[in-house]
Amino acid sequence: MGVEIIAISINLFAAPHKIALGGVSGVSVLLDAVFSIPTYATVLVLNLLMLVLSYLFLGKKTTINIALGSLMLPIGLALTPEIMLVKDPFVSVIASGAIFGVGLALLYRCNASSGGTAVPPMIVKKYFRIKEPITLLVIDLVVTFFNIFVTGFESFVVATIALVISSAVIDYIETGLDRKKVLYIMSTEKENEIRKAILAYGTTTTIFDVTGGHSGDENRMIMVVIESNDYFALLSILEDIDPKAFVLVYNASEVHGGFSLKD
């Protein structure tokens, strides 16, 4: 499903406007625009080349992990018709970046890959200790830069914006959709009232024994995990009980297990 979503993002949004968003798919769009080479053919050839490089430099296990996605993507591109759904190139390419990010994030979630330019960053990391996102960003920017010579400078700018959106979507989906807020609360005088208010609100707490780093005083800290949309309501309750309470807030990308009174 992730591979087909990527194919849709290319054939229905980016390719009709001849704008490359980076990676092997971006190269295929550029070659299609200049030489009328079908996108699936370019992706197939380049992905096979990347599989050979992966086998030589990364080993058999890594190659097997990316082989299925590498071979399925050109099939998806061949079966998905190239249709211009959105006439405005800016809107279409932005949509392409977001949809591409969803597809790639789904592949990451099941420890798979569409191959292509995901391979060189892994090789660079193995031999030169350079982080994969940095190398991948450089490759994508180089590919998008060639939009200037094919469809103009505006296409390059739009493609760069789409890359940023795609990265944000990947990060959001990959790190979890079940995002919550974690609150650490410490009140020197009204801890029990705060704890009872949290319980009455519909969730439970965890209590830590803490010691002041400067004063050395013993105290207790309350930890509570809540839905993001409940944050401001609970914060208002805490401020009404003790405006001087210490509250530390974290974003939790995903929470498993535990206990909630609402459940």
From TrEMBL:
Leader sequence segment: none
GO cellular component: plasma membrane
Positions of the DUF2179 domain: 205-257
Keywords: Cell membrane, Membrane, Transmembrane, Transmembrane helix
Keyword 4Fe-4S: no
Chief localisation class: membrane
Localisation: Cell membrane
A Pfam family: DUF2179
InterPro entries from the UniProt entry: DUF2179 (IPR019264), N-reg_PII/ATP_PRibTrfase_C (IPR015867), UPF0750_membrane (IPR051461), YitT (IPR003740)
Lipid bilayer topology: Multi-pass membrane protein
CDD domains for the chain: YitT_C (cd16380)
Secreted listed as a keyword: no
Membrane-spanning residues: 37-58, 65-84, 90-112, 133-150, 156-173
Annotated PANTHER family: UPF0750 MEMBRANE PROTEIN YITE, UPF0750 MEMBRANE PROTEIN YITT-RELATED
Name of the protein described by the UniProt record: Integral membrane protein
Organism, scientific name: Holzapfeliella floricola DSM 23037 = JCM 16512
